[in-house]
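Handout, section B. The chain below has 705 residues.
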Amino acid sequence: MSETSSARAVDTHCPYCALQCGTRLAGTRQADVTVRPRADFPVNRGGLCQKGWTAPTLLTAPDRLLHPLVREEGGDLVPAGWDAALDRVATEIRRIKEEHGPDAVAVLGGGGLTNEKAYLLGKFARLALGTSQIDYNGRFCMASAAAAATAAFGVDRGLPFPVTDLGASDVVLLAGANVAETMPPLMQHLRTPRLIVIDPRASATAERAALHLRPAPGTDLALALGLLHVAVAEGRCDDAYIAGRTSGFAAAWEHAAGWWPERVEQVTGVPASLQREAVRMLADAGRAHILTGRGAEQHSKGADQVSAYINLALALGLPGREGSGFGALTGQGNGQGGREMGQKADQLPGYRSLTDPAARAHIADVWGVSADTLPGPGRSAYELLDALGTENGPRALIVLGCNPAVSAPRSTRVVERLAALDLLVVADIVPSETAQLADVVLPVTQWAEEEGTITNLEGRVLRRRQLLDPPGEARSDLHVLQGLATRLGAPTAHYPTRPRLVFEELRRASRGGKADYSGITYERLDAGEALHWPCPEPSADAPPHPGTPRLFLDSFAHPDGRARFLPVDHRPAAETPDADHPLIATTGRVLAQYQSGAQTRRVPELDKAAPEAFVEVHPDTAARSGLRDGDLARVISPRGTTLARTRYDHRCRPDTVFLPFHFAGAGRANLITNPALDPKTGMPEFKVCVVRLEPVPESHAGAPS
């Protein structure tokens, strides 16, 4: 039992998105837990979305995993004891490493893992396994924004300012972000600003916009270049800011100079007049923010698209100016902390580069090993999944906190690769679609049953507090990592199971890094301090560092203190419509579901609100395909077919259809999505794939999920 598990109520945070809304949980057993939003937490201020209100329901999911499962020779998963399950995993790992080398064992983590879990997972992979083959599902979420922000500012923090700054803004531009559905409590901070929304869909957020720009999917880069062109051509740039705080403007302008508004209109469909109006609104605002979301980022050129929006923000003098700025809306619950703590293919804790000799030496010293023993960078997430079971790819995969059988692009291929493994191990709270394929399934705790820390979208480190003991034989992921590490010959003390002890090591590992947590302690967090990283440990006689809620006010994180314009130019999406596939499909989230749906599809209230896959389509487009509202449709791309219920929407672009990606089985949107990768980040092109629609004969009609 933990130090807090005997309490009947705890202050903690929602288990879903990166807002990490403050909540208060009460109850003595899983079946009677209640949740209330906390008015004292500034991000949600007493607000909570439908998912947050229903989160306790998942604690008693009918198929909650309560015991380890192992697959018998006959093919069935059957209950087993922890020792037997971990022994089987360790035995297989040793065999595979002996026969194929350490990189034959891979690890895939998740952006919902606590900082402590993400940190220990990276250490486990690189030391206990000795593998370079580790990445996480944040590669499908924040990779583009992270790369662009690091290149421009020298460091990546989703929002380099508190969420509450948005409420005092005059104008906020949202590029590819439908926060009214994906982060509803954030909308209370967007009531005052005039909103500019860039989205091909007439989303719930776009409905509240003062100005809605609707580019064809895959053309954001041309639009952002055009907005920069307008700013320069109409004399709306902040020339003093550009001269005093940035470098590289001339090279960026060289590309934008060729994207005058009328040319942009031809490529994107956005009227030149609206382009000019958007720039006027931003430039005339006393305070303004530009924010990107997955709609701008999940492309084979996602990093360049975010860079183009950053260039616009820099030209207008927004980043590093109090009350204004640029930011990216982190999606997953710990998408920020998850990419800082070492579970990403090319990073070490503290947001250190795995190829930096000084960074390697620092982490090696903390871990008590030689820097030469640390593997180099491995494959990015999709490349890793695509290589599973191949001649030169991993033969074993350990999965914590994600469901790639549903969430990865070209999922038929991914499922085939998972099936080709010698060993698939999945730690989860429910039998997700990936867990159902596993050789060993390990039941782990969820948010109300564990301690730890989470870092939200504004870089604020938060305490997750335990209300209940785990049910059945469920254990923390930290116990899983310790159990496997010790069976592979590592000292038990090197893999603590107490989150507080892991955090103390994490503090030392992050010291001096870009994401410096060394001055943050559980004691300070429990005392109610609001601590945003970087928060370095002070010298012996200095007071505690207060944290850094606003970055870049004095300088940017590059050695010369200047932000960088990045020269980028538009290029088409990886595929464009043709006679066989005349439409563009784009994917995204809906209000009642979350990520792969493994959690929310098990909550009756949420499942009732969004029970099956659908394809949102203009009535004229549907009619040309022989479809009526409510008909079951085949959505066919060059990679495969998904089934979805036709949903008329007169506001849709006639050339574009939309599918949510939360559903499993034949309704998986990722059966059709394109795994074309951004060369800078490994981000797949989730937002653009060419398709055609076909009706499903009545004799074959049924639920698409």
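Note. Residues 585 and 657 are 5 Å apart (CA to CA). Compare this with the example in section A.
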